Amino acid sequence: ITETGKGWSKVASIIDESNSVSFMVLRDMSLIGIVSGDSQGSLSGFMLDNKASVMEGDSLVTSNMGLYPAGIKIGKIRSVEYNSDTQLKTVKIEPSVSFKSLQKVAVII
């Protein structure tokens, strides 16, 4: 939640391009990275360790650093690439939910 008022609140979606979220790989929670949205509603990110052994199909969850509590499903890694210019391992992520068809959200306090 980024803003509140009497009877309303603004929620920061994980696909918001101005929002970055720390994640863990469910298979090995020592593997962490940062994910953010883009203007098309897709998710992409990078691993904090450029030698991290992430792979296509790995499930990602929030890590409890920042706005989101630990363990919320983010999605699965769709592809992994190493960017030699930035020396980062980048990931494209298939979100766990279709954000374009959401009608209700739950606020976790």
Low-pLDDT ranges: none
Q: Which structural class is indicated by helix and strand composition?
A: mainly beta
Percentage of helical residues?
A: under 10%
Shape: elongated
Largest sheet: 6 strands, antiparallel, barrel
Distance between the termini: 10 Å
Content of β-strand: over 45%
Report the order of strands and helices: EEEEEEEE
Commentary on this structure:
It is a single chain. With 109 residues, this protein is an all-beta fold. Helix content is 0%, strand content 46%. A hairpin with a 5-residue loop joins strand 4 and strand 5. It starts with a strand and ends in a 14-residue tail after the last strand.
